[in-house]
Amino acid sequence: MSKPKPEACHKLIRISAPHFVAGAVLVDDACVEAAPIIRYMMVNKWGYWRIVGYCKEKSWELETVLGGNG
Q1: CA dist., res. 1 & res. 61, Å (int)
Q2: CA dist 50 to 2, 29, 34, 54, 58, Å?
Q3: Residue 2: what pLDDT?
Q4: pTM (2 decimals)?
Protein backbone atom coordinates (compact mmCIF):
# COMPACT_ATOMS: atom_id res chain seq x y z
CA MET A 1 0.00 0.00 0.00
CA SER A 2 1.43 3.38 -1.02
CA LYS A 3 1.71 6.37 1.28
CA PRO A 4 -0.97 9.01 0.89
CA LYS A 5 0.32 12.12 -0.83
CA PRO A 6 0.38 15.28 1.27
CA GLU A 7 -2.11 17.91 0.22
CA ALA A 8 -0.82 20.42 -2.28
CA CYS A 9 -0.10 23.91 -0.97
CA HIS A 10 -2.27 26.46 -2.78
CA LYS A 11 -1.72 30.20 -2.82
CA LEU A 12 -3.65 32.98 -4.54
CA ILE A 13 -1.81 36.25 -5.12
CA ARG A 14 -2.84 39.65 -6.45
CA ILE A 15 -0.34 41.85 -8.25
CA SER A 16 -1.13 45.57 -8.53
CA ALA A 17 0.79 47.76 -10.96
CA PRO A 18 0.03 51.26 -12.23
CA HIS A 19 -1.45 49.83 -15.44
CA PHE A 20 -3.05 46.55 -14.27
CA VAL A 21 -4.25 44.37 -11.43
CA ALA A 22 -3.86 40.63 -11.98
CA GLY A 23 -4.12 37.38 -10.10
CA ALA A 24 -2.14 34.17 -10.09
CA VAL A 25 -2.53 30.75 -8.49
CA LEU A 26 0.48 28.88 -7.16
CA VAL A 27 0.40 25.18 -6.31
CA ASP A 28 3.41 23.69 -4.53
CA ASP A 29 5.39 26.87 -5.27
CA ALA A 30 4.79 26.85 -9.02
CA CYS A 31 2.56 29.32 -10.83
CA VAL A 32 -0.15 27.20 -12.50
CA GLU A 33 -2.72 29.86 -13.44
CA ALA A 34 -2.30 33.54 -14.20
CA ALA A 35 -4.01 36.49 -15.81
CA PRO A 36 -2.98 37.01 -19.45
CA ILE A 37 -0.78 40.02 -18.68
CA ILE A 38 1.44 37.92 -16.37
CA ARG A 39 1.05 34.61 -18.21
CA TYR A 40 4.85 34.30 -18.59
CA MET A 41 5.01 33.53 -14.86
CA MET A 42 2.81 30.48 -15.42
CA VAL A 43 4.48 29.33 -18.64
CA ASN A 44 7.87 29.36 -16.89
CA LYS A 45 6.49 27.93 -13.59
CA TRP A 46 7.84 30.79 -11.51
CA GLY A 47 7.88 30.20 -7.76
CA TYR A 48 6.55 32.54 -5.09
CA TRP A 49 9.90 34.11 -4.19
CA ARG A 50 10.84 34.72 -7.82
CA ILE A 51 7.51 36.52 -8.31
CA VAL A 52 8.06 38.54 -5.12
CA GLY A 53 11.52 39.61 -6.30
CA TYR A 54 10.28 40.52 -9.77
CA CYS A 55 7.42 42.58 -8.33
CA LYS A 56 9.88 44.45 -6.09
CA GLU A 57 12.11 45.22 -9.09
CA LYS A 58 9.11 46.60 -10.97
CA SER A 59 7.74 48.46 -7.89
CA TRP A 60 4.53 46.45 -8.12
CA GLU A 61 2.52 45.54 -5.04
CA LEU A 62 1.99 41.87 -4.28
CA GLU A 63 -0.66 40.62 -1.85
CA THR A 64 -1.24 37.04 -0.78
CA VAL A 65 -5.02 36.72 -0.89
CA LEU A 66 -5.27 33.06 0.11
CA GLY A 67 -2.63 30.70 1.42
CA GLY A 68 0.51 30.90 3.52
CA ASN A 69 2.91 33.74 4.19
CA GLY A 70 5.45 32.66 1.64
Answers
A1: 46
A2: 33, 10, 15, 6, 12
A3: 59
A4: 0.84
pLDDT digits (tens, 9 = 90+) for 35-66: 999 999 999 999 999 999 999 999 999 999 99
Mean pLDDT value across residues 64-69 = 83
Contact indicator for 67, 20 with CB cutoff of 8 Å:
no
Q: How far apart are CA 5 and CA 38, in angstroms?
A: 30
Measured from the Cβ of residue 1, the count of other Cβ atoms closer than 10 Å reads 3
